[in-house]
Amino acid sequence: MKKNKETPKDKLDRIRIENEEKKKQLTEEHGAYFGNINNDNDLPLEIESQFLDHIMAFENAFKSANVIKLYDFLEQPPFRKVEELTDAEITEELNRLMELMANKSVSLDTICEVDNRELYRFITEELFLEEKDDIQIPGMISHYTYEEFHPNHEHDIREHSYNFVSSYLNKESDYYTTFMSGEAEKAEWHNHFRQAFSTFHLNDFTIKELVFDTEKAVVQFDCDFVGKVEGSAESLHFLGAGEMNLLFQWDFWCVDKIIFPKSIVR
Asked: What is the model's pTM?
């Protein structure tokens, strides 16, 4: 006698039960917390099952993994010292190492442009010495970013300044405070100015000059934005030069003070 085939509904019910058992096991054995995943009706049960399997595989591997240097994880590939290579050889050897790393699910990215010779030096003299868990799971990538080791302060200051101004002039959110120093966030100047306007429209923000050291930065900028006065049909136009002071706190740049250009009635 042939066995009854599993209907689509029976299959979904089985996977649902299996998923609940997997979540229970992950919670009891590894302290996993799934939040609202149980109520997420948009996540197909089959995908959820694969997701849980990946977590289980990672937790089991991590539990028994040894910590080794990345160079050993990559099986100690041969390489030449950076000073021994010509520029043409540097590019070829860098590509070889990057491909070797990719084959072991290790990636290295840069936020800004980094010279090939410096990137090769970084890999062979610094990254190879970094320690990592000796595990490799399909679909899991060990990701490194060059700027995590060598911050590009000029890039970060420019990005942080622009993001702060854009966020500060967005009255739909108070997220701008996350870009501020601890002392500046406690002050009232940023609240008083914002609360005087119902909306802002940013036309332009351009950094003209910046000076910085390891602790503080001064940004000179030109800006053009319009603010509609709260409770009035009147608008003020802010156009001209301004200045922003930043401090390096908590390993990133924080806005400590900003001076906008004087306004005119529009």
From this structure: 0.75
